[in-house]
Amino acid sequence: MDNRSDVRDFLASRRARIRPEQAGLPAFGTNRRVPGLRREEVASLAGVSVDYYTRLERGNLTGVSQSVLEALASALQLDEAERAHLLDLARAANGTTRSRRRPGQQLVRPSVQRILDAMTAAPAYVRNGRRDILAANRLGYALYSEAYADPVRPVNIARFVFLNPRARTFFVNWERAANDTVAILRTEAGGNPYDQGLTNLVGELSTRNEEFRTRWAAHNVRLHRTGFKDIHHPVVGELHLAFEAMDLPADPGLAIVVYSAEPGSASEDALSLLASWAATLDQTEIANQAEAGAAALREAGHIGGKVGDPTQAADYQRPV
Fold first, then answer.
1. Has residue 18 got a pLDDT over 50?
2. Shared-domain flag, residues 22 and 134
3. Distance, CA of 19 to CA of 23 (rounded, Å)
4. Could you give the C-alpha distances from 9 to 271, 288, 299, in angstroms and in order?
């Protein structure tokens, strides 16, 4: 990753989105040559000289103090994720980034796999910062059976979102899933600029998918700790699930992601049905069965709308 260009584009894009009135500044006339704030307006709000801010926006964060960074974050009205990203960019510029992770394969410890397997009523998986799924429980494999239908391992959520046509129906709101995925990768790139695997992934997606490339250029960032996912599963239909992401302190860069449904909801019933469906299948069978169900539903015209009963499809094999 190019730190100077990342800093330049991030600061310029944050400046461009703020109108003078949003910053409490008078807007003199309507013939402004730049979108958002001018550099001198940001400098004034941050309490620095115009020349100094210009140096920062040209990508040079070397030697910038914490107080100046905080003032800049306030002037640009950065949210929590954006503020953290700015600090990460400053650490990288000063050679003090949090970690230069050693190359090599990230492994999931047996004790962590046992924790996953002990969660029988909730889909759960372990992922790294690049969004590789490194391990999952049975229900986690079943939930993401559409992604596991691709033989490439490890399954990568970003590749699934942008390179696999199945993702367009799997995510009820694909646009939001795409925006969130890119913003999460951008956040990870700021914190771990020396991750060669992440650099390769971004390069691959930028080359192969214009929609990824456009979103990457926007420099949006977000934290991925809690939220909701709306999924259209080919076997059980629509699922509205809450998720929590919990870091594994003993395994830097890894986190467990766990999904749950509101008690008494249709999603809870669908999740229970998914667990029953997956109970007697191994990982490969889960992917194959999901593909059979999805193909039948596409043929019947259900994909893209409400899902009917996949067990009525001629090529659906009920687990026994």
1. yes
2. no
3. 7
4. 43, 44, 46
Q: Does residue 81 sit within a domain?
A: yes
Under DSSP, the state recorded for 36 is S
For the stretch 275-300, pLDDT in tens is 998 887 776 666 666 566 555 545 54
Asked whether the CA dihedral 259, 265, 269, 272 is positive or negative, the reply is: positive
Taking the CB of residue 247, how many other CB atoms lie within 10 A of it?
Answer: 12
**DSSP strands (E only) in the chain:** 124-127, 132-136, 155-156, 226-233, 237-247, 255-260
Q: Which domain holds residue 32?
A: 3-93
Q: Is the pLDDT of residue 256 over 60?
A: yes
- Contact status, residue 23 vs residue 41, Cβ threshold 8 Å: yes
Task: Say yes or no: 134 and 231 in one domain.
Answer: yes
CA dihedral 192, 195, 201, 206 (to 10 degrees): 60
| pLDDT tens digits, one per residue of 219-235 | 999 998 999 999 999 99
Stated pTM of the model? 0.86
**How is residue 101 written in tokens?**
């992770």
Instruction: Let me know: does 242 contact 221? Beta carbons within 8 Å.
Output: no
Q: If you write DSSP's letter for every residue of 135-156 in order, what string do you get?
A: EE-HHHHHHTHHHHTS--SSEE
